[in-house]
Amino acid sequence: MKQITLVLLVVLTTLFYSCGTSDVQNYESGTLFKAQVLFPVQPRPAGQMDVIELRSEPIDTVRIGFIGLGMRGSGAIYRYTFLDGVKIVALCDVVPENVEKAQKVLRDKGLPKADVYTGAEDWKKMCERDDIDLIYVCTHWDLHTPIAVYAMEHGKHVATEVPAALTIKQCWELVNTAEKTRKHCMQLENCNYDFFELATLNMAQQGLFGEIVHCEGAYIHDLRWLNFDENGYWNMWRLKHLEKTDGNTYPTHGLGPISHLMNIHRGDKMNYITSMSSDQFGMTAYAKEKFGEDSDYAKREYKKGDINTSLIKTSKGKTIMLQHDVTNPRPYSRLHTVSGTKGFAQKYPKQGIALEPNAHSFLSDDQLDSLLTLYTHPIVVDIEEKAKEVGGHGGMDFIMDYRLIYCLRNGLPLDEDVYDAAEWSSIIELSRLSVENQSMPIVVPDFTRGAYKKLNTVTYYTK
Could you say which of 42, 131, 225, 360 has the lowest number of CB atoms within 10 Å? Predict the structure, then answer.
């Protein structure tokens, strides 16, 4: 009996160690698990070329059609009345009152009345006109890609609010249409034009932070009251997205500025992403408190987890952390954290920069102010005062619009291109799928199809 017991012990011990050795060998050889290719890169259609740093013929007066005149669209109309070299040709919104408010802005500025479109698909008629150069899209998210694609197919440049796309399929539609038509497609990521973000971009390009190793971005914004406001988002479209989609549903405000700082698709690219969401608590708790335990809003299912955290590894070995939270009582934050071999910067919760040889402490307020003045981005120097006067999130909206028109009028590459729009927007579906599969790492498609190697830095062009 003792011999049988001893033999069994030896066999079990051998099996245990052999299994453990096998696992270790698999791990060490890198075959245990790798990021999954769920979306293979599509071959470029015959006859198409990339649109890296696309230049188009200069347009002396940019004729614009605006589609969507709600929160973002109405603000854009106001800002454009301060820009030279533009003509607002047409306005489109399914809410006639929004159109009339926009017309009043034009009247008050002594500008000509614009043509009006209010039908559900009248945006197509606007895109089909021959007297418009740029379509400016501020509708709900679901229409961003369809309008952008249709506009480019009808010979128009496009500027669309964020996110530019909701799926990988839509990202490829934007890229392929832009390459086929040779038209600009800019995602209106205004946070790239925040004064601090622009200054840190300039610092990074001048080597102040050394080699950039890691960056963080976020969209942390308590929107519970607005999500449930029946007079807020048109047809409560944003609430519907919270009901049906998990992951990082609004990644670009945090990702845009750090992508440019890290030269994404200008020498580096995002390789793979892994994402995790907390369960949903905030929306239900808020609905119960505001509308009652038995209310429709309190009983609904909201798929969107409260806090999403995503990690991205780049081709050059850099890392990115993104967060999203619109359902908890927290101070607003985009993080904008920059960590390099010679220095560190952050915008939230308090602006601060730390540099070698005393990087254990932030610079004093006076030192920080002097540094930010010294590294003011060149594109801001001539318009900073006007931008702050006109406004739009402290002036960054105006800088964004000014730059778009400046580049179109001078035939220059836009600061943000269609690959930015696709890459940053792709995080929506990639993060959702990762969350749904226990944070499975997923390969990020290279929407440039290898053309990211043509450059080594992002450039905001001037004449």
Answer: 360
CA dist 247 and 267 (Å) reads: 28
Taking only the tens place, the pLDDT of each residue in 22-77 is: 455 555 656 678 999 999 998 999 999 999 999 999 999 999 999 999 999 999 99
Sheet holding 352-355, edge to edge: 352-355, 343-346, 337-340, 212-220, 319-325, 308-314, 270-277, 442-443
Read off the tokens for 458.
Answer: 């992002």
Q: What is the CA radius of gyration of the chain?
A: 25
Q: Give the separation between CA 253 and CA 262, rounded to whole angstroms.
A: 15
**Cis peptide bond prior to 441, omega within 30° of 0:** no
| Bridge partner residues of 214 (DSSP) | 319, 339
Spatial separation of the C-alpha atoms in residues 188 and 136, rounded to whole Å: 9
What is each CA distance from 254 to 162, 192, 261, 453, in whole angstroms?
Answer: 12, 9, 12, 24
For the beta carbon of residue 229, count every other beta carbon within 10 angstroms. Answer: 13
In three-state form (DSSP H/G/I as H, E/B as E, the rest C), the secondary structure along 16-85 is HHHHHHHHHHHHHHCCCCCCECCCCCCCCCCCCCCCCCCCCCCCCCEEEEEECCCHHHHHHHHHHCCCCC
Q: Partners of 136 in the beta sheet?
A: 66, 159
Residue 146 token pair: 């369809």
* Cα 453 to Cα 233: distance, rounded to the nearest angstrom: 40
Considering only CA atoms, which of 71, 326, 350, 348 is closest in space to residue 221?
A: 326
User: Cβ distance 207 to 375 under 8 Å?
Assistant: no
Model-level pTM greater than 0.90? Answer: yes
**DSSP string across 303-328:** -S-S-EEEEEEETTS-EEEEEEESSS
Q: Which residue type sits at 226?
A: L
- Which pair of tokens denotes residue 165? 């796309």
Q: Tokens representing 410?
A: 């001078």
Looking at residue 25, what is its pLDDT?
Answer: 53
- The CA-atom distances, in angstroms, between 114 and each of 71, 98, 117, 126, 262 are 19, 13, 10, 12, 41
Domains with residue ranges and CATH for the chain: 62-188 (3.40.50.720), 191-379+415-454 (3.30.360.10)
Q: How far is CA 416 from the centre of its chain?
A: 11
- What pLDDT is recorded for position 31? 64
What does the CA dihedral 57, 62, 67, 70 come to, rounded to 10 degrees?
Answer: 130
